[in-house]
Design goal:
The protein is an alpha+beta fold and 251 residues long. The chain contains five helices and 13 strands. Strands 1-10-2-6-7-8 form a six-stranded antiparallel beta sheet. The radius of gyration is 18 Å and the shape is globular. About 2% of the residues have low confidence.
């Protein structure tokens, strides 16, 4: 995904964007967490995303909204973190939507700068693979290649061209395997990290949305971290986005 700095008034209601204010139907409201409200991260129009959904996993229409506690930035895997994020889904007439202001101004609310969001294709590569044995040098070369492709590193300067905001594909993990981490803590740490069960369960998980740290949007997740919103394939097919899972990883 790429972004473009524009005036929010120039983004049509219901179109994809980072930050600003969400375009919500009247029966939706800002999600609450503890004694305050979550911050709005992004809304993604699935009609715009559909041409890039190679596996036809997403609904063809509708809007996904992502919210998170931007101030305290919970990790997501503790029981008390359960409501630190929220994914909402609306699949109705865009005429029902209005740009919805934050319910109240408090020290705990942080509104992100607004950017138009546009979808593009990005190749992603797994951290782990089977059937191929690589020596240490080959592994180093593979991860260098993986990083340069997924992080879109500038060929000459060596700097990262753009943050890694994207849907689907392989999560760009910073610590543990993202899917396994979510499954492990979702099962109250009663499942072994190296078990066949966790390997099998991770194959049923989908990366719904990954949001990177981004100076432009004025967000730093921990120490240059990434937010991962994931969902089980069955829940995705039944449009049960309220069952999405979340974790934060950083350096």
């Amino acid at each position: 995904m790429v972004k473009e700095l524009v005036d929010e008034a120039d983004i049509p209601i219901g179109h994809s964007k980072f930050g600003g204010l969400p375009d919500l139907p009247a029966h939706f409201s800002f999600p609450k967490y503890h004694n305050g409200y979550l911050s709005f991260l992004a809304q993604l129009n699935l009609r715009e995303a559909s041409p890039f959904d190679k596996e036809n996993l997403l609904p063809k229409t509708g809007i996904l909204y992502f919210f998170y506690d931007v101030v305290d930035q919970p990790w997501g895997f503790d029981k008390e973190d359960k409501n630190c994020f929220k994914v909402l889904y609306f699949d109705g007439d865009v005429k029902e939507l209005t740009r919805t202001p934050y319910p109240e101004k408090t020290e705990d609310y942080f509104q992100l700068p607004v950017f138009k969001a546009m979808f593009n294709e990005l190749l992603s590569f797994p951290e782990e693979f089977s059937g191929i044995v690589l020596n240490e040098e080959e592994l180093d070369n593979y991860f260098d290649f993986r990083g340069s492709m997924m992080q879109q590193v500038e060929r000459y300067s060596g700097s990262i061209a753009s943050p890694m905001h994207y849907m689907f594909g392989e999560p760009f993990a910073i610590q543990n395997n993202v899917f396994e981490e979510i499954i492990y803590y979702d099962n109250d740490e009663k499942i072994d990290w190296n078990s066949k069960e966790i390997k099998q369960k991770r194959n049923e998980m989908v990366l719904l949305f990954q949001m990177d740290s981004d100076d432009d949007i004025d967000v730093m997740w921990g120490d240059v971290g990434i937010l991962y919103f994931c969902i089980d394939k069955n829940d995705l097919q039944s449009k049960q986005f309220d069952k999405a899972k979340f974790t934060l990883q950083c350096h």
